[in-house]
Amino acid sequence: MSRIPLPYNPKVLELFRNPKNLGKMDDATVVAVAGNPMCGDMITFYLKINDQEVIQKASFESYGCAANIATSSIVTEMIKNSKLEDAWKLSWKSVAEAVGGLPSVKFHCGILAVGALKRAIRKYYKKKNVSPRWMKEEMSFEEKQALEEEELAKVLSKRMKPEE
Ligand code: FES
Predict the structure, then answer these.
(1) Which residues line ligand 1 (CB under 6 A)?
(2) Backbone angles phi, psi at 79, to 5 degrees
(3) How many angstroms separate the alpha carbon of residue 134 from the centre of ligand 1?
(4) What is the pLDDT of residues 26-41, one digit of tens each?
(5) pTM for the whole thing?
């Protein structure tokens, strides 16, 4: 059976083939993961943040698909030298637009990338025990979706385990 390739635009394919900022960061200030290893869709975001709350460096590792790698890569480019407050305002839609659009079945891949970023920002403030006024206590859309996917993957992996 032959598989029909997804209609990725050239920008997604280019970022997938030559992703920017791919790899672990040893001196990261904060690291956050989104996704679930059980289903293979997993991203780690690394941020290096200075005392002025500016992201000096961002990198990622991804075991997701082309859309996930492309969106994660562009997120790291978009937030470089940004204040955390501005990076927080990034939405998965603006990221999808920045890669020239995504096939609808691949929206979740971009959502997961932004979810990982927002988790990293939240984690940074949690570690400092600070709550900036612009960050609501309630999870953002992308964080909620990432959590939902993880919960779903857990349920599915339990169901697939043979009876003990
Ligand atoms: Fe799951 Fe893209 S990250 S299909």
Answers:
(1) 41, 64-65, 67-68, 106, 109, 112
(2) -100, -5
(3) 29
(4) 999 999 999 876 667 8
(5) 0.90
Domains and CATH numbers, the chain: 10-157 (3.90.1010.10)
What's the gap in Å between 50 CA and the centre of ligand 1? 31
Give burial (CB, 10 Å; 0-12/13-18/19+) of 130. Answer: exposed
Which atom of ligand 1 is found nearest the CA of 66? 2
How many angstroms separate the alpha carbon of residue 98 from the centre of ligand 1?
18
Which strands form 41-49's sheet, in the order they lie side by side?
30-36, 41-49, 55-62
